[in-house]
Amino acid sequence: MRIAVYGKGGIGKSTVSANLSAALSALGERVLQIGCDPKHDSTRLLHHGQKVTTVLDYILNTPEEDQKPEDVLMKGYMNCGCIEAGGPRPGKGCAGRGILTSFEFLNRHDVFSGYSTIVYDVLGDVVCGGFAVPVRKQYAQAVYLVTSGEAMSVYAANNILHGIRNLDPEGRRIAGIIYNSRGAGDERERVFAFAKAAGLPVVLSLPRSGAFLSAERNARTLVETDRNLPESRLFLEFAEKLKKGVPLYPASPLSEEEMELFMQGKPLKSLSGNTGKEAGGPAEVQRSEDGSVTGKRRQAGSGTAEPYRIPQKRALSDPFSRVPLFGCAFRGAVDLAVHLKDAAVLAHAPKSCTWYAVNGLSSYGRRGLFDRGILYPAFIPQRFSATDINIKDAVFGGVEHARQKALELAKSGVKNIIAVTACIPGLSGDDLQPVKEELRQYGTCMYIIHTDGVEAGDYNEGMALCYKTLAEEAVKPAAAPDPDAINIVYEQTFSSETDENFAAVKEILSSLGIRVNCRFLCASSVREVEGFLNAPYSILAREDRLGLELKRLFEQRYGCRFAKGVFPEGFRQTADFVRQLGRLYDRTEPAEKLVENSRKEYDRILTELRSTFSGMKTMIFLSREYAWLEELAEDLQLDIVCASIPRNKEALNAEWNHRFSKQWALDRDTFAQKAAELKPALVLTGDLSVIPDPPEGTAVIAVKRSIGKGFFSAAEESRKWTKLLGRQLKGRWRNDRSVFEKYYT
Amino acid sequence: MTDLYLRSTTPDYITGAVYACDGVRDSVVLINGPLGCKFFYGFSAGKCTPRASDLWNIRGELGVSNSLSDSLLRSQYFTGSPHIPATNLRYEDFIFGTAEQLNRALQDILSLHRWAFVTVIQAPGTSLLGEALEPELEKISQEAGVPFLYIETPELSANMDIGYDRTVVSILKKLREQENDRCFGKESAGKCRKDAGGSERRPSVNLFGLHRYRRHTEGDTEEIRRLLDLCGVDVHCAVCTDCSVEELLRIEEADANILFEPECCAETAKYLKANSSLPLINVGYLPVGPDLTELFVRKVCTVLETDCQKALADIEQTRARIYYHLARWTGGRGLPQDVCYTAEGEASMLYAFADYLTGYLGLKPGALQVNYRECPENGFEKLAGLLSVNGCEDALQKDIVSVNNAILFGSANTIAHVMLCNNNVFGIETMCPSSGFIDVVPKTYLGCRGALFLLEQVINGIRLLKAWEG
Ligand code: SF4
Questions:
Q1: Is residue A629 domain-shared with residue A554, that is, in the same domain?
Q2: CB atoms within 10 A of CB A144
Q3: How many angstroms away from the CA of A165 is the closest CA of chain B?
Q4: Domain ends where: A443, A473, A503?
Q5: Residue A30 has what pLDDT?
Q6: 3-state secondary structure string, A31-61?
Q7: Which of residues 290-319 of A touch B (CB under 8 A)?
Q8: Chains A–B, number of C-beta pairs less than 8 Å apart
Q9: pLDDT tens for residues B397-429?
């Protein structure tokens, strides 16, 4: 027999549980009582106040290979077993997870098997998954609710019923209510009325009695103190019944509105639409086929519980509102943090999350090495440390663990640490602020990026948090202003083109005598970030929602000034960009000269390219606008016979997202039909699948979302197209699809 | 330094668990967590998606059309790869519970295809919640008529081998519960050598521990299959490497269980000892090089009482070929002693490589980095013994990055890391993640073919190292 006694903290459930265990032991049962309250005083009356080693303390302090179940098992009255699950210190870790971990320990060591009756004493105030563990099928079979007539106690009892119904909507798990009187007013009526409303019997009524208190002073149960006392007899009689078996009832909690009416003493039928209680009330007790007793259900004629309905609690419960994203905020922040060369990244995370993140970012490093023979240091992080949170840290809080890792780094000479938190420290409520303070004495600065895994959101949000935290905390007042310097903000950090783009822009800047002060945050350093304000102007490398937010942050917080626009693509944009820099840095003449010289070179390239492209029949299918493409199409003198380009100025934050947006709805079929009719020589498209089977002689070319930067970038892009024009060789391999399917699908 | 680096760049328990499930063709493994946790399997793993052009990973049930199917990729659970879905949780689900979204995901996934087995693994974040998801899963499992394995508490910071090993056991247990009489039926053992017509048939074996994180799992399995075939032995089931649920249910119809490395097979071995009537051939290493391959072959043939002559002849030919190339290239002097090799891996794996590279080929070990020493059983002592016999025990004390002019055996991450430290190294990938090299021809480091392939890499590697040096 496995019984769980639930009730609000302080309602007397531990006294009830202990007396019940004592009574059952007195009747010859081999009883094990397990206290599931982090306060760990449930079994005190049974073991007479022995020093308690809770399961969780034990797991925390004993190496796994040395762990023995007898170290947490105390012997109490009549040899009954006493175990306290324990919990983390208040405000630290996750108590619910602690219960689960304790039960896993007890199961692993087969602690339950030597006992005929198990009594679980469980806190009912908290109804998270962990505290529901004892009600799970393999643990408690029957649940008793201990309540007085006090409002909070009845609320807690109703809450527990909700929890049990959620866990086991069809099952019968409730054995009844134990009324523990506090001697206040009409509480008896209230408890019985609640029991009736919930369709449950009151199986034991305990009077308010000083006898409990005096027994407790001696760390004894009443049953042990004197079996002949009327209160002890109540427990012994109750235990007798228990031994014979008890009927079980389904959990039928009152709804929130019903509960409100009930507490106000109003009849429940005033609730509109509540047919069950209007039609005869809930508490009519009847025998069911299996011999157990059940309360009559609310639906007239139905003997089973109402199906559990998922509450429409939030918009996110709509599956279509969940747009898949690149990963969690933890990963986004880590991916950005590794760009600071003079900082160590400390991932406060389990190995799993660290591995996902490091493997993700190192995939760029590996690809760079293989595809281009380039080693990108940021993606092969050399100063990456992780706390490797384990289950103990999750239960008790992992701050100490993080502290030790951070101190190790500080003592090894690391001056800057970027700490990023994953889901588990978020759930355990780990606060790294004190560690940050402590590190100051070693001259080490810690920047905490509290992503807490997904709490901060998706990958982009993690990046945003890292950008913003460093922008807010690392930037220092200008110590050495340099009028010829400029900052570059928000470059693409995961692109094989980042280096080339930077080199192209740097070349333009250098030819105007302008030095790059800080790349925020790309192949950068904390030192550079600290000196951000030394430069009079900044450029935003690319513009999307996050880029603009960052720009605003720098403008509003530090009064920074930004050049207009972003890294330029194509001739016109680059010329504007150069002229603007000329004005800002007082170099109008060199700027004009640069534009003029570049114009000549551009014209030369275009003349050459026009010999191929001029008058070429072209179709364009794009899901967004590309200014450089418009300019290029004109300069190449393409003959555009059909174009599908949305005039949508909203730049999309992540390319991924557009797959799920309405852009998909563009009429692809018509476009494909037109291509078959018009047989263009060239199709420029952002999505190659729009023409899966192009007509003979049509080259379908993917338009890149972003091309190189500078005066000649667009022209150079079209030079690549020339190699793709003309007859497309298909190869006979395509005919072998059926063979592939035969062997592999 | 490398220790720290490897700690973050070696796979975790959940990866091991996922790979164990993923080695069962007609099963699906669902990660109950945010997409952050799925992303790795969908994109970064490199091995897990048909995009990697790796036929080995194209599973019968989801063909190439699915890998390109927009509707599948647009599904919030499959995001980007038709493989290893996740429930796509948000932080709100951590607070309000994940059952609702888990239910949706499962309904969606079950409607896609008729799976023979479903595993639900809690992600690191959700494993902390202690939710009672079993009733929900049990219900869906019953409705769908598919066995479900629920891994509620993956060990947060344990390594992949432990995750793999334990999950293999869980899968076997679950299937055993499911079809008690078909699987592990003690009566079925012993009748095995007779086919339906009563005539004698070739003995067969189950293979354990060829997990999919190795660089050339397809070629490895093929080579073991080939060697056993030469011994007159069939492979009945490559457990959790490339098998079907049906094969797993019938593993007791084989004649022996072969287990390779203890790091990823220790729990499995215990489980099989207690629950299977088949003899256990606990090899303890991977058959790398002709000597260990010969030992392996003899061991199997002794237990199964088959003739190993054909296999031994094949090994002999391999020895001859190795001899020719080494003698010719080195003028009979042996490999140059100013070049060494460094390697990372499980102790048993390093043992097997060292036995061949050092013991057989005579190449010095510069530094050997032992991963996963925390596995309950590992081959560390054996490795240390081998090195000490060859007078090279100091290789265990050295950091890989401290050794210059070396052939480096490891993952592409480690190779990149060592290169970044400006070392002159020639990297040979032995495990994932890979650099992205696409293997059209299946390769292996095991058995005879593996011995030759390794020699080819080593000789050319040394030539390149020397050229760079000089
Ligand atoms: S979503 Fe949470 S549990 Fe998953 S990888 Fe990110 S931090 Fe880890």
A1: no
A2: 27
A3: 12
A4: A473
A5: 94
A6: EEEEECCCCCCCCHHHHCCCCCCCHHHHHHH
A7: 310, 313-314, 316-317, 319
A8: 234
A9: 999 988 988 999 999 989 988 988 877 899 999
Q: Would you place residue A74 in the very low, low, confident or very high pLDDT band (cuts 50, 70, 90)? A: very high
Residue A654, exposed/middle/buried by CB under 10 A (0-12, 13-18, 19+)?
Answer: middle
Task: Look at residue A260 and give its three-state secondary structure.
Answer: helix
Q: What pLDDT is recorded for position B100?
A: 83
Count the helix, strand and coil residues of chain A and give each as a percent rounded to the nearest 5: 45, 15, 40
- Give CA separation, A293 vs A175, A245, A283, B308, in Å: 10, 12, 11, 70
Residues A547 and A456 in one domain: no
Return the best residue to mutate from A97, A322, A328 for the ligand 1 pocket (most ligand atoms within 8 A of CB): A328
According to DSSP, residue B41 is labeled I
Distance B36 CA to ligand 1 centre (A): 5
Instruction: Report the distance separating Cα A90 and Cα A88, nearest Å.
Output: 6
Residue A677 within any structural domain of the chain: yes
Q: Looking at chain B, which residue has its C-alpha nearest residue A104? A: B153
Residues B46, A363: C-beta atoms closer than 8 Å? yes
- The residue from A473, A503, A537 where one domain ends is A473
Residues 6+ apart with CB under 8 A from A369: A375, B412, B415, B416, B419, B435
Do A399 and A516 fall within a single domain? no
A351: annotated active-site residue: no
The string of pLDDT tens digits covering residues B256-291 is 999 999 999 999 999 999 999 999 999 999 999 999
How far, in Å, is the centroid of ligand 1 from the Cα of B213? 21
- Look up A393 and say whether it is catalytic: no
Same domain for A673 and A642: yes
Task: Tell me how many domains chain A contains.
Answer: 5
In angstroms, rounded to a whole number, what is the distance separating the alpha carbons of residues B158 and B167? Answer: 13
**Mean of per-residue pLDDT scores for chain A:** 82
Which ranges constitute the DSSP H helices of B240-379?
A: 245-249, 266-275, 289-304, 309-330, 347-354
Chain B residue closest in CA terms to A365: B416
B190 contacts chain A (CB < 8 A): no
Q: Can you list the domains of chain B with their CATH numbers? A: 2-158 (3.40.50.1980), 202-313 (3.40.50.1980), 331-469 (3.40.50.1980)
Q: Are residues A67 and A129 in the same domain?
A: yes
Do the Cβ atoms of A385 and A409 come closer than 8 Å?
A: yes
Same domain, yes or no: A495 and A583: yes
Atom of ligand 1 at shortest range from CA of A422? 7
Range of the domain at A707: 609-734
User: Nearest C-alpha of chain B: how many angstroms from A375?
Assistant: 7
A306 and A334 in a single domain? The answer is no
Helical H segments across A62-182, by residue range: 95-108, 151-167
DSSP string, A429-476: T---HHHHHHHHTTT-EEEEE--TTTTT-BHHHHHHHHHHHHHHHT--
Is pTM beyond 0.80 here? no
Q: Of the given ranges (A168-177, B66-75, B271-280, B281-290), which has the lowest mean pLDDT?
A: B66-75
Contact B404, B421 (CB under 8 A): no
Instruction: Select from B37, B157, B166 the residue whose CB has the most chain A CBs within 10 Å, as the one to mutate to test that interface.
Output: B157
Q: Is the pLDDT score of A312 beyond 50? A: no
What does the angle CA B188 – CA B189 – CA B195 come to, to the nearest 5 degrees?
70
d(CA A316, CA A469): 27
Q: Does residue A125 lie within any of the structural domains? A: yes
Please indicate, yes or no, if residue A151 is contained in any of the structural domains. Answer: yes
Q: Is position A567 within any domain?
A: yes
CA torsion sign for B78, B79, B82, B86 is: negative
Residue B151 belongs to what H/E stretch?
strand B148-151
The ipTM is 0.88
Q: Are residues A579 and A653 in the same domain?
A: no
CA of A355 to the centre of ligand 1 (A): 10
